[in-house]
Predict the 3D structure of the following.
Amino acid sequence: MKIEIEAKVVVEDLKPISEAARLAGAESRGTISQHDIYYSDPFGKLLKTGCGLRIRQQSGDVNRTILTFKGPVSKGPYKTRPEIEVEIGNRESMQQLMDGLGYQIVIEIRKKRQSWILGDCEVCLDEVEGLGRFVEVEGPNDEAITQTLRRIGLGEYVHINRGYASMMMEKMGINKITWGATFGKAKPRFQRKPRPKGGHHKGKPRPFRRDDRKDRGPRDHH
């Protein structure tokens, strides 16, 4: 399982950061649009335990659809959490599967992202609808991220130890602790119907069975 380590800071303008990354020798990976759909399980346990589950539709220089699970955040100077990503071929079918299992859409997030590679880190310049402009730096360890932040002029900025989903939920007034009690009452649609008292044939003629013949005497097996 991959461990994601990233720092996130709020900025007023992305252009100076883009120029700083270029001057530092970063390699541009282009610009993409991302549409993220975040889900909650039927009882809200994902949100209560600090986990995340989303489907991401990515378009632009690179087109992909990715199913991502993120575990709880660990203690540390930067946001650190386990992450599992699986590329899928059909977003609509995946959404139907999630719906059939009783998973509910909590929020949707749309953003434009400029991506750069600087050393061992990925630098993402994000413009998130409804939230603002952010810079994310993801790397293999805390030291690499710290050095990269300094190289693009963000070494003194206070980083945010939260994800876009958490920030958007707060803005929309969604409480992840009470989500399961208020909204998370959905049940999986693919359920076996409960067996009625008295069996499935209560009130209906019972199908004929061989043992129902009138003659219950011993059978001649010869």
